[in-house]
Specification:
The protein folds into two domains: 131 residues, Acid Proteases (Cathepsin D, subunit A, domain 1, Beta Barrel); 128 residues, Cathepsin D, subunit A, domain 1. 39% of the residues are buried. It has five helices and 22 strands. It starts with a strand and ends in a 6-residue tail after the last strand. It is globular. It has 275 residues and is mainly β.
């Protein structure tokens, strides 16, 4: 199976990848494709769940980036994204995130559980999303990646300032590349006040510049990064220490290919993909 569909960004400053979807035959609604979500179930925000008349149950609080998040469960008869159709599936429902002004607001999030069986390509310059069959571990090109446990975040090595490789998480829901305060201190970075935007909302952060980042054969010079104290929670969810999140600025000019079954990641500059 091969599925190709256009996507749009929520806004230039809020680069969430949004795809049209229908739920229980209604829509389209805008769902964010987020590699930083390790949930097996789709996430829907409460206004959408209310508009669809969904019945909520199993309300509970779960740890969030800055504070506990109230989560409930519901059941969907059908979810359609392009030609991908899922029927009879559970979903999680939570409050919408607080974002700056956007052109299009996300109605929910599709994470690992949606694309885990595919080779997913996000062509940022062309704003096209593709889902195809895995090429297999022996044929899929690119850099080997690790999937965390219990949350299957994408973990890859990132070289900072030509030093030793560091374990970072790839997060398509992050507007900035982010590093831990410990790494910022080790690099002796000068911090300025700033903020970072993602599917968790807008967070206060330190802002700094790193001479060079390198990962999966790509480099970014004079990279602006956010410094946020969130990596204890991220590391616990990933099952191993994580020192940074690789966000949108690193791959915005690329074709990002993630072959989940083969555990491979390929970044190709946009110019290299043109005939």
């Amino acid at each position: 199976m091969s599925v190709s569909l256009p996507f749009r960004l929520a806004a230039a400053e809020v680069p969430l990848v949004l795809v049209p979807a229908t739920i229980n035959g209604r829509g389209p609604f805008h769902l964010s494709i987020d590699t930083g979500s390790g949930e097996a179930e789709p996430l829907l925000f409460r206004p959408l769940a209310s508009a669809l008349g969904l019945v909520l149950h199993e309300e509970r609080d779960e740890p969030g980036v800055t504070s506990p998040v109230r989560v409930a469960r519901t059941r969907l008869d059908r979810l359609d994204v392009g030609q991908i159709r899922l029927g009879g599936l559970d979903a999680l429902v939570l409050d919408p995130v607080q974002l700056p002004p956007v052109t299009v607001s996300p109605d929910g999030i599709l994470g690992y559980g949606f694309f885990r069986d595919y080779r997913m390509v996000i062509d940022y310059p062309a704003q096209v999303l593709e889902f195809t069959a895995s090429l297999g571990a022996n044929k899929s090109p690119g850099t080997p990646i690790e999937l965390g446990s219990p949350k299957p975040f994408i973990i890859l090595d990132v070289t900072v300032n030509d030093g030793v490789p560091r374990p970072f998480m790839l997060d398509t829901g992050a507007s900035h590349t982010t590093i831990s305060p410990a790494l910022a201190s080790e690099l002796d970075l000068t911090l300025q006040p700033g903020e970072a935007i993602g599917v968790s909302g807008t967070l206060e952060a330190g802002a700094a510049r790193i001479r060079r980042l390198a990962a999966a054969g790509m480099t970014e010079d004079d990279a602006e990064v956010a410094v946020i104290d969130l990596f204890g929670l991220v590391s616990e969810a990933a099952g191993r220490p994580i020192e940074g999140l690789l966000g949108y600025p690193f791959f915005r000019s690329c074709r990002l290919e993630i072959d989940y079954p083969a555990r491979r990641l390929l970044l190709t500059p946009a110019a290299a993909t043109r005939p």
